[in-house]
Amino acid sequence: MAVATLLTVVACKPPPDDRTSLSADAAERGRAVIERVSCGSCHVMPGIDWPQGRAGPSLEGFDDVGLIAGALPNTPGNLAAFVRDAPAAKPGSTMPAMPITAAEAQDVAAYLYGMNDE
Ligand code: HEC
């Protein structure tokens, strides 16, 4: 199951922080997914130069937020579920479901957690 798989990835990496230690490969794949489905058409995202839309909240500093979309505890599993199908993860969310697989959603989560580390 998706959450267990992601936690395994985390467990293979050393500290410092179990959220930012997600693999760089996953983050790189996540970046490609983000560009493919144009998350940037609604979000300002560090490392994604185009198109820088404003329909959704800026994701700058996102890895520090306490609750995803003000509703869900900020864990890798919740984030992957939210970015794939926000209305299912948070009833009433105005972010549409995105055409990505569960594995791609985990990679997107890895990118979001890592994007402020450079
Ligand atoms: C059609 C516009 C749109 C697209 C495309 C979109 N989002 Fe969103 N996103 C939103 C809106 C609107 C919200 C606020 C939703 C809410 O509060 O329920 C949001 C919320 C979020 C949040 C929570 C932000 C926070 O501060 O808690 C994350 C993370 C996120 N989106 C990531 C993504 C990713 C990754 C993609 C691409 C896979 C994406 N979004 C595509 C509109 C969009």
UniProtKB/TrEMBL annotation:
Keyword terms: Heme, Iron, Metal-binding
What SUPFAM superfamilies has UniProt attached to this entry? Cytochrome c
Boundaries of each Cytochrome c domain copy? 25-116
| Entry-linked PROSITE patterns | CYTC
Keyword Iron in annotation: yes
For this chain, one GO molecular function annotation is:
electron transfer activity
What is the protein name given in its UniProt record? Cytochrome C
Organism lineage:
Bacteria, Pseudomonadati, Pseudomonadota, Alphaproteobacteria, Sphingomonadales
